[in-house]
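Hi support team,

I submitted a single chain yesterday and got back a structure, but I'm not sure I'm reading the token output correctly. Could someone confirm the output below corresponds to the sequence I sent? I've pasted both exactly as they appear in my results page.

Thanks,
R.
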Amino acid sequence: MNVGIIGAGFFGEMHALAIKAIPGLRLISACRTNREALKGFCKQFGIQGYTDYRELLSDPTVDIVVIATPHSLHTPVALEAAQQGKHMLIEKPMALSLHDCDAIIAAQQKNKVKLMVGHINRFSRAYTVAKEIIESGEVGEIVIGMSTMSKYWMEHNRRPWHLDRQSGGGMLLTAGIHCLDRLIWLVESRVLSVSAKLDTRFHKQEADDAGLLFLRFENGSFGTVVSTGYKYGAPKHLTELTCTKGVMNIDFAAGVSIGKEEKWEQVKGSGADDWMHEALVEEWKAFTKSIEHNADEPVPGSEARHYMQVIFGAELSSKLNREIDCTGDFDDHEVV
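Hi R., thanks for writing in. Yes, this is the structure output for that exact sequence:
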């Protein structure tokens, strides 16, 4: 299958490296509006370049597209890609309104293409091992989950649109959404309601850089998501689970630790130094398998839509200072 990347920036390159590592996939084209940057990208990977995504999508030899554009552009590109019959891997967040999420899903279903949203954390070795342990029943049922992402915000790939919520920026939509995905995936239950506080405490920008979400799940579990893009600090990427038969810590590099009978034990081989590339490769393998076998996508649009509903609910909760019901739709236009 031939792949085209729309949004050949920092993470587009990460996708390109993962695609090259998978037999049966061939990267043939990329799109970026910055001509000089596009030229370097295409030279690096030996592919065709376009500055207009419509030209890439009109190529009948392209089977799959990666949509790694700025968040505000996901919807128009996805709608055109579906119309052109392309399978789509859309980077998170899926879209900037529930209406847009629904439009993408409707276009995907109408045109009978596959749609997957790129929630990469669950494909990392640490989280796949943790999921297997939970499903085995070894630690029992999850009672409380705490998922944290604390990172330096102004890293080298930060762009102006990341700093404005109107264009889909902010720590929660850009990075903290990973915490939400991995917690909901591990708990394996939809969110009933969310109560949150989001703020801008570290940087001069029109978007959040600090936030905490409290989640109530349909299955009775509950948990928190901490999303912090600090100015000074040190990174923390950790999920902590309190279960009925033990406790568990999950870290990308360190792997999985299980606590029982007042002792911690490390699960050997559960961490990875180059976890992101490894996870992207696994993400692509899972997506292409769903295409080849006409099976359900690993992260379908309906699931990613629920994550967006929780995030919009969190933003509304912070604005109105009250808990928000996530079982039905609400006016997500109120959140911006």
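A quick pointer for reading it: Residues 301-320 form the longest helix (20 residues). Let us know if anything else looks off.

Best,
Support desk
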